[in-house]
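Customer escalation, tier 2.

The customer says the design service returned an amino acid string that "doesn't look like it belongs to this structure." They asked us to rerun it and document both sides in this ticket. The original structure tokens are below, unchanged.
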């Protein structure tokens, strides 16, 4: 399996992940419109066309993991940390290993020189979200170098709530489209 990087959608994903990473550097929570029930240290947020699960981990650099589920299908993820030195928009070959599956491919750097948090973002398919829900850990590698290893305790409940959130977002999109046709 691979990280998906289609060019037209990639620009949108980059924008969302950069905005999310910027907001996460200002506080622990990305800026989304509504907060949903948050199980086991996970936070669930919605936006106009997506829902996201977010978790901040203790440890060196306090890693933040953000997984975005898009109403149109597919997903994206960002991983940021105050101790990392990635360069914004630079491409990195990463392996995201979860639930026995490996997602390899190009990820892009997040974070400006002045920002406290730097990290990586990539686009995935729906199966990545399902693996996060079933997984017990997420291991991220850059070649042979371990970028981070994160426990996914509670991710199944968090993803289930995010999928309910996504149903609401899709219903809102449908209602808005109907309203436009009036």
């Amino acid at each position: 399996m691979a990280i998906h990087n289609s060019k037209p959608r990639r620009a949108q994903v980059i924008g969302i992940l950069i905005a999310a990473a910027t907001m996460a550097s200002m506080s622990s929570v990305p800026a989304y419109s509504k907060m949903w029930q948050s199980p086991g240290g996970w936070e669930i947020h919605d936006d106009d066309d997506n829902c996201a699960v977010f978790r901040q981990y203790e440890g060196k650099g306090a890693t933040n993991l953000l997984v975005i589920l898009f109403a149109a299908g597919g997903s994206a993820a960002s991983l940021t940390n105050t101790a990392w030195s990635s360069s914004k928009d630079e491409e990195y070959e990463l392996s995201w290993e979860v639930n026995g599956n490996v997602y390899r491919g190009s990820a892009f750097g997040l974070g400006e020189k002045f920002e406290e948090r730097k990290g990586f973002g990539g686009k995935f398919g729906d199966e990545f979200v399902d693996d996060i829900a079933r997984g017990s850990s997420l291991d991220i590698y850059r070649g042979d170098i371990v970028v981070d290893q994160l426990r996914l305790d509670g991710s199944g409940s968090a993803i289930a709530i995010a999928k309910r959130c996504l149903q609401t977002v899709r219903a809102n999109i449908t209602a808005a489209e109907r309203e436009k046709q009036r």
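Tier 2 assessment: The sequence is consistent with the input. The first strand starts at residue 34 and ends at 36. Confidence is low (pLDDT under 50) at residues 1-14, 21-32. Sent an explanation to the customer and offered a walkthrough call.
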